[in-house]
Design a protein that fits this description.
The chain is about 65% helix and about 10% strand. The protein has a two-stranded antiparallel ribbon. The chain has a two-stranded antiparallel sheet with strand order 3-4. By secondary structure, the protein is mainly α. The protein folds into 2 domains: about 140 residues, Winged helix-like DNA-binding domain superfamily/Winged helix DNA-binding domain (Arc Repressor Mutant, subunit A, Orthogonal Bundle), CATH 1.10.10.10; about 45 residues, no CATH class. Strand 3 and strand 4 form a beta hairpin. The two termini are about 45 Å apart. It is globular. Helix 3 crosses helix 4.
């Protein structure tokens, strides 16, 4: 009986180690992807004077021609409060303009300027080429499996209900032993 309970403990420990290893590997892969996005955003900022999130916002506005801040937030998965700051910066660069709705003055529509359209047309979309190149090397079933796995992870983490900027906040993580660790 004693041998069996020791075996169960060992088995549970090995199982935890495998799960922990998967967790570490997934986290490491996600961090590398986030780092690649950050580097690409910095390169865009250096070359074009616009960051990745600003480009995503600009492209959403150019695509729709007239859009509200809330609609932009929903399209690019950022909080509306974050969008306001981005729109402020794009407006100061004369890439976007705000116009009050003529029928309902509570609504403010964001529209691209000619300068904004021209910039959006010549800029590369963040990581689109490297992502498409990588996906092109995979079979359709592998692409589907990765897509479904990432969508499931988002769902299980409850990340689908948060803005991306909320997920990327850096701060303390509390584990079960009440140790504080920084990421």
């Amino acid at each position: 009986m004693k041998k069996q309970s020791i075996a169960n403990i060992k088995s549970a420990s090995e199982s935890y180690q495998v799960e922990s290893d998967f967790g570490r590997r997934i986290l490491f892969a996600l961090r590398r992807i986030i780092r690649a996005v950050d580097i690409h955003s910095r390169l865009l900022a250096a070359e074009y004077g616009i960051t990745g999130p600003q480009l995503a916002c600009l492209l959403a506005v150019v695509e729709k021609e007239s859009i509200t801040a809330t609609e932009i937030a929903n399209r690019i998965s950022l909080d509306a409060s974050t969008i306001i700051g981005i729109v402020d910066r794009l407006e100061s660069k004369e890439l976007l303009q705000r116009h009050r709705d003529k029928n309902d003055r509570r609504f403010i529509h964001i529209v691209p300027t000619e300068k904004g359209r021209e910039l959006a047309e010549k800029m590369p979309y963040p990581l689109k080429r490297p992502l498409n190149t990588a996906l092109g090397k995979m079979s359709e079933s592998e692409q589907k499996r990765i897509t479904e796995a990432l969508e499931s992870l988002v769902q299980y983490m409850g990340a689908g209900t948060l803005g991306v900027d909320s997920l990327l906040e850096i701060g303390k993580i509390h584990n079960n032993l009440n140790d504080d660790k920084h990421i």
